Structures are given as structure tokens and as C-alpha cells.
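Re: the 104-residue chain
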Amino acid sequence: MTFGIAMNSPQRKLVRVQEKGQVTLPVDIRKRLGLKKGDLVAVMDADDGIFITRQEVLATRALDRIGDLLREHGLSLDELIESGRGTRSRIIEERYGLPSDTQD
């Protein structure tokens, strides 16, 4: 079976399969796809070889969007966490009768 990388250009790139089946994607392809260390890719079996596509973890996109929204409203993650501490302390005091000075 051949090893192929889906590309818009007809240019063929050869890579060597290393120990444990590892391959290194050429730097120009990694840059074009925005791949960096630790990113996920999907590998699919195709008639003429394999097809590799970039995958994005939905949680990461969601967290990035939350960060963007916080910045748009002039808030930081630390401020959001700190505001939650007061709310948690109040709920614990109301629900369990524990004094809020014992909470973080």
C-alpha cells in the first residue's frame, strides 16, 4: 500500500516510515495545515493509499471562543474564577451552614 498526503498541488512528497510506524510530515505541509506538536490528525484508508486530515478538538475551539468573549467584555479568566469563589462560598454557607471564612 502506498503512503499519500492529500494536497492541492500535484507535487509528491516522500517520507520514510520510522520505527513504530512513525512518519514526519514535511514542514511546508505542516505549516499549510497549521499543525504543531501534539495536534491530532485523522488517518483514513483509501483505495490508493491513506488520507491524512487535520482534526480539531471541539473543546479547544469552545475554550478559545470563551476566552475571546471574556476579552471582548474586558474580563480575564482569573477575574471570572475569582467572582465564582464568592458565589461558591455563599452557596456552601446557605446550603451546608458552613461559614464563608473557611472557604477559599
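The chain has a mean pLDDT of 81.
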